[in-house]
Amino acid sequence: AQSVTQPDIHITVSEGASLELRCNYSYGATPYLFWYVQSPGQGLQLLLKYFSGDTLVQGIKGFEAEFKRSQSSFNLRKPSVHWSDAAEYFCAVGAGGQNFVFGPGTRLSVLP
Amino acid sequence: NAGVTQTPKFQVLKTGQSMTLQCAQDMNHEYMSWYRQDPGMGLRLIHYSVGAGITDQGEVPNGYNVSRSTTEDFPLRLLSAAPSQTSVYFCASRRSQGSYEQYFGPGTRLTVT
Fold first, then answer.
1. Residues A79, A44, A36, CA angle at the centre, nearest 5°?
2. How far apart are the first and last CA of chain A?
3. What's the N-to-C CA distance of chain B in angstroms?
């Protein structure tokens, strides 16, 4: 069965510092991979997605993610975090048909 | 376009009560789904629909019913609310079953006492 793990429940970084959020998945075939962001009290917004091709994908708000098949990972990065990036981040796998599997989420706090 | 809309935003129910969470989309999407979000568990699929008149169960369907009489609307019914159904509920839509770009509504926060 498909699964998604996000090892870090909560991460705190200083504004201007770099960020990497980890995501590992378990799926037998090539997955479709997604990162969503959820601001407090809001719905989920798609940051970026990977379907095929270049393994480094660019998203909105200055985020990027790299698909590493050998490590079954799809880590999210940002070179310089802004206070407005404080939110919860979800990694998800689209695993065929209707099936989306979400990770448990990583909450990001940003220190001024 | 309003995208995906959900009502109400907040709801408090007593155990045993029933209610319907509303979801509508104006993007002419075939595929709609309901998720619940619980702390530390991400989003879990409750029910989904691949088109008007067609619905199916997701990962956690017990205690919920859905119907899809029109393309636009996909209501979620709680038959007899239980405290375990306290959660945040999200409706989502996408163009078709083969499309993986989901659009989420703002959510309904439900508390069952």
1. 35
2. 41
3. 36
Pairing mode, strands A100-102 and B4-7: unpaired
B34 touching chain A per CB within 8 A: no
Cα three-residue angle A43-B3-A35, rounded to 5 degrees: 40
3-state secondary structure chain B: CCCEEEECCEEEECCCCCEEEEEEECCCCCEEEEEEECCCCCEEEEEEEEECCEEEECCCCCCEEECCCCCCECCEEECCCCHHHCEEEEEEEECCCCCCCCEECCCEEEEEC
Question: Which one, of A39, A46, A27, A56, lies nearest residue A110 by Cα?
Answer: A39
Nearest CA in chain B to A44: B104
Whether residue B65 contacts residue B85, with contact meaning beta carbons closer than 8 Å, is answered with: no
CA distance A41 to B105: 11
B41 touches chain A (CB under 8 A): yes
pLDDT in tens, B21-76: 999 999 999 999 999 999 888 899 999 999 999 999 998 999 999 999 999 999 99
